[in-house]
Amino acid sequence: MRLRHFPYLKSSWFKSSWFNPSCFILLPCLIAFGQDQSISPGSPDSGTTAATETKASPQPDLTPDASGKLSQEHMRQLFRVVADKDIENEKRQRDYTYIDREVQNNLDGKGNTKSQEVKTYEILEIYGAPVQRLIEKDDKPLDAKDAAKEESKIQKIIDKRKNESDEDRRKREEKEEKQREDGRKFVRDIADAYDFKLVGTEDVGGREAWVIDGEPRPGFEPHMKESKFLSKFHGRVWIDKGDLQWSKMDIEAIDTVSLGWVLARIHKGTRVMIEQTRVNDEVWLPRHVTYKFDARVALLKAYRVDGTQELRDYKKFRTSTKIVGMGEVKELNNPQK
Are 196 and 213 in contact (CB under 8 A)? Predict the structure, then answer.
């Protein structure tokens, strides 16, 4: 599962060499709903809407039992519907450029800010893959040297993908398909891993949403290794009643999570809150992220960070592949007027 990818939570710490960001998101996401599942949507330029590209899923029955809990079958129904729609979101996000402003605070042992990093990126889509172009540091434009480095980085990505062999493309696509299949398996485990309760409804961005809590279910037996960490997290999700899209989620670690051979530990209290917004009446895309992360690597080095990400200025573009020299890409990401 990619973060869609998540474009948020891509701070410098999350991009450190030992840490796999998709692993972090896979484990706690009660409501990621299989973002990497595979379907066969129409062409992004076909002019059809998301609703017509995929066979409509039936409206799920969300009638709780006497105690207010939702059955596992309720949740499976809901997951299928929201997963289908979030797949469409991922596909359609590839049709958009946008701005991603990230603020990361590095904390001391008492939770006080030691230092702060503010970076702003333009997110481009190059040959089907999202690419970050750094455009500002501390809310100031890059100097000429750093700007040239960014342009060189972008051109290398273009050249690599443009010259990709059929064999390399096949291997990449097979790897992506395996990730999607893992996402499908993970979604099935989510439905079994939690006891869900319909809390009620709330207004989110002027739209009515169901509010659903998820708590680890005793006796859960995971079917894949990533799922064994689900019991370490709980969360709340807001599902837009009109569109059946998740509009907001809040996930928190309730116990220490140990990861990988380096003995990395994610501590209790680590938390991620994400909000989405409706764009162009066709897609739901991330708007705001708040996170607090407390971890330790190899029982020695502590990482304590918190921060926010704001994603804005979504612009739909037409895609072509006309490459014209170092740092210059004509019509590769042309916003539609």
Answer: yes
Among all chains, which residue has been given the structure tokens 């573009």? 317
Q: How many helices (H) and strands (E) does the chain have?
A: 5, 17
CA 3 to chain centre: 3
Q: For residues 289 and 273, is the Cβ–Cβ distance under 8 A?
A: yes
Cβ contacts of 166 within 8 Å, gap of 6 or more: none
- The C-alpha atoms of residue 234 and residue 246 are separated, in whole angstroms, by 16
- Pull the structure tokens for residue 271: 């938390």
Question: Each residue of 171-221: pLDDT tens digit?
Answer: 888 887 887 777 767 767 777 788 888 888 999 999 999 898 989 989 888
Give me the residue label for tokens 């890059």.
142
Measured in degrees and rounded to the nearest 5, phi and psi for residue 162 equal: -65, -35
Output the CA torsion sign for 153, 154, 159, 160.
Answer: positive
Q: What is the DSSP letter of 236?
A: E
pLDDT tens readout for residues 115-132: 999 999 999 888 777 889
Q: Which pair of tokens denotes residue 146? A: 């750093």
pTM score: 0.75
Retrieve residue 56's tokens: 């409509």
276 Cβ contact list (under 8 Å, min separation 6)? 245, 246, 247, 248, 284, 285, 286, 287
Contacts of 31 by beta carbon, 8 Å cutoff, 6+ apart? 82, 190, 212, 214, 235, 237, 246, 249
Burial class (CB in 10 A: 0-12, 13-18, 19+), 167: exposed
